[in-house]
From TrEMBL, chain A:
Swiss-Prot/TrEMBL keywords: FAD, Flavoprotein
Keyword check for Phosphoprotein: no
Start and end residues of each Electron transfer flavoprotein alpha/beta-subunit N-terminal domain: 9-209
Name of the protein: Electron transfer flavoprotein subunit alpha/FixB family protein
Biological classification of the source: Bacteria, Bacillati, Bacillota, Clostridia, Lachnospirales
From TrEMBL, chain B:
Gene3D superfamilies in UniProt: HUPs
GO molecular function term, any single one: electron transfer activity
Classification via Pfam families: ETF (PF01012)
Domain Electron transfer flavoprotein alpha/beta-subunit N-terminal: from-to ranges: 22-210
Residue ranges that the Swiss-Prot or TrEMBL entry lists as coiled coil: none
Organism: Parablautia muri
Protein name: Electron transfer flavoprotein small subunit
SUPFAM superfamilies with a match to the protein in the record: Adenine nucleotide alpha hydrolases-like
Length: 347, 260
């Protein structure tokens, strides 16, 4: 492998049902920053069936180039044809950096692709920078410049590590959704669109999709919410989430929850905040009856204001809360809702 | 049917994480457990064994001490345990780890390989899919339900807002979620038998079709530039008031911060 042959920042533009996922635009935004540091371009790789129409949206969010891999075999996500698409794009276009979202799709696709093309992959990154490796000069070891430094939490968020991939290309990372920022949309901006089809021949590695079952959910995406009213096991029952829903409605927020609540079957998985759920960064996060296990905290600690209500004054949630209230949520939450109704009506 | 289950011995983070003065993890001070997603994968294999009949072989890579999780797996009902351990395998990233495990599995007959989705120490979720790629078999990640039908496996595969029911030809690799099931307990007889059972120990020489350049720290494309204990924001205020005063307190803070 001649590392000098690999140029440009590529991002996987994930789409589901021919709608770009939020992570696609976040990666274009981050890719643009990295490309600027490297004095190169950001390319979005759009994979699916009849998806070419999404290329303009990627351009408006900052993609300089869009490679479209369009084939009927790519209609629904399946590991093998998608891995073939990305591995073929990498072999053909030789990017120096390739970013994939750390989603339920990307965390399956990324490892498969990196293993196919023999490069390193850093999982679930929360920060990406261009810098030197080793970070500080080490006598007798060449310090490489313009390396991708990939920072990620491990141990359920207890430790943080920065990883480099000095000897292989592309430098690959999966990136946690909700962490990177989209660039502002520039209406009418165009990208160079390149169509590429490596050919798709089904084999034993192509699994058959027997059924697609969509969760019936008309709720807002908790990752977009400015205010989250989040409940844990301490809420006590699925019925009692009503008091959280009432609060959310009055304050213009959305209800989310902890993993314990999903495991108990009280709320669907897409409302789950935390390591195995979603990472959220709202302006205000109400943690109600949530003990604050490290895996939960990893998904919400970037909120601007964290308000915790818990009857257990030793609950670890109080270690990250800006404002902690030790008390009975069944008394405080309904009273808060009533009070906010009065306050907001007076405005 | 022959099922291979990959498990990892990990520090138990439930009792909190202990650090050395230099900020690295003090693994010696923490208890170890079988990684929860792997345990769910093992339980899934044991249920398939109960339902369809199967031989379940558990494979782990780690220090010699990792044989403990193999004995635990056998006490739960696994038939065989294989420990892959060798000094030259140390410091492996997910590429080198998956190469090692694939190299070990090439010695075995299998219809199904089950791994946990991710380990609670590394949290990468990469080793399972990478093993499948090295072995050239299909992978189905995030399995929430597994059935066998006529040489094929039928799996419910979870996504954020949906699940797919997938059908794959065996052999196939599946990664299991801890939510998949409630793992069974070890039985007293099982514990007794497992204590006496022979564990197969393999080293570098037993790995099939793996080049030295793909093993251990030297065979790892990713390298650690920096590692540290995470700096947290720290606790803010904590009050213990009656409900009415608590409401006043929250409303006051929301006003100060211009939320309302």
């Amino acid at each position: 492998m001649n590392i000098q042959d690999y140029k440009g920042v590529f991002v996987f533009a994930q789409q589901v049902d021919n709608v770009l996922s939020g992570i696609a635009l976040e990666l274009v935004g981050k890719g643009k920053d990295l490309a600027k540091d490297l004095n190169t371009e950001v390319t979005a790789v759009l994979v699916g069936s009849d998806v070419k129409g999404l290329a303009d949206e990627l351009a408006e969010y900052g993609a300089d180039k869009v490679i479209v891999v369009d084939d009927p075999e790519l209609k629904e996500y399946r590991t093998e044809p998608y891995a073939h698409a990305l591995a073929s794009v990498i072999n053909e276009f030789k990017p120096e950096i390739f970013l994939v979202g750390a989603t339920a799709i990307g965390r399956d696709l990324g490892p498969r692709v990196s293993a196919r093309i023999h490069t390193g992959l850093t999982a679930d990154c929360t920060q990406l920078d261009i810098g030197d490796f080793p970070i500080n000069p080490i006598p007798g070891k060449e310090q490489l410049h313009n390396q991708l430094l990939m920072t990620r939490p491990a141990f359920g968020g207890n430790t943080i590590a920065t990883i480099a991939c000095p000897d292989f290309r592309p430098q690959m990372a999966t990136v946690r959704p909700g962490v990177m920022q989209k660039a502002p949309r520039e209406a009418g901006k165009k990208a160079n669109i390149v169509e590429f089809n490596p050919g798709f021949t089904p084999n034993d590695k192509y699994v058959e999709i027997l059924k697609v079952v969509k969760a019936v959910s008309d709720v807002a995406d908790i990752m977009d919410a400015k205010i989250l009213v989040s409940g844990g096991r301490g809420v006590g029952s699925p019925e009692n989430f009503k008091i959280l829903e009432d609060l959310a409605e009055v304050i213009g927020g959305t209800v989310s929850c902890s993993r314990a609540v999903v495991d108990a079957g009280w709320k669907p998985k897409d409302l789950q905040v935390g390591q195995t759920g979603k990472t959220v960064r709202p302006n205000v996060y109400f943690a109600i009856g949530i003990s604050g296990a490290i895996q939960h905290v990893a998904g919400m600690e970037e909120a601007d204001i964290i308000i915790a209500i818990n009857k257990d004054e030793t609950a670890p949630i109080f270690d990250v809360a800006d404002y902690g209230i030790v008390g009975d949520l069944n008394k405080i939450v309904p009273a808060l809702t009533e009070r906010l109704k009065v306050e907001l009506a007076a405005k | 049917m022959k099922i291979v289950v990959c498990v990892k011995q990990v520090p138990d983070t439930k009792g909190g994480v202990k650090f050395n003065p230099d900020g690295t993890l003090d693994r010696g001070a923490m208890l170890t457990i079988m990684n929860p997603d792997d345990k769910a994968g093992l339980e899934a294999a044991l249920r398939l064994k109960d339902q369809y009949g199967a031989e379940v072989t558990v494979v782990t890579m780690g220090l010699p001490k990792a044989e403990e999780v193999l004995r635990e797996a056998m006490a739960m009902g696994a038939d065989k345990g294989i420990l892959v351990t060798d000094r030259v395998l140390g410091g492996a990233d997910t590429w080198a780890t998956s190469q090692t495990i694939a190299g070990a599995i090439r010695n075995l007959e299998y219809d199904l390989i089950i791994t946990g989705r991710q380990a609670i120490d590394g949290d990468t979720a990469q080793v399972g899919p990478q093993i499948s790629e090295h072995l050239g078999i299909p992978v189905i990640s995030y399995a929430q339900k597994i059935e066998i039908e006529d040489g094929h496996v039928i799996v419910e595969r979870q996504y954020d807002d949906r699940y797919h029911v997938l059908k794959a030809k065996m052999p196939c690799l599946i990664t299991a979620l801890a939510e998949l099931n409630e793992p069974r307990y070890m039985t007293p007889g099982g514990i007794f038998d497992a204590y006496n059972a022979e564990i197969t120990v393999w080293g570098r020489a037993n790995l099939v079709d793996v080049d030295d350049s793909n093993l251990g720290l030297k065979g790892s494309p990713t390298q650690i530039a920096k590692a540290s204990d995470k700096v947290r924001k720290g606790a803010g205020e904590k009050v213990n008031l009656d409900p009415a005063a608590s409401v006043d307190y929250i409303v006051d803070k929301l006003k100060v911060k211009h939320v309302i």
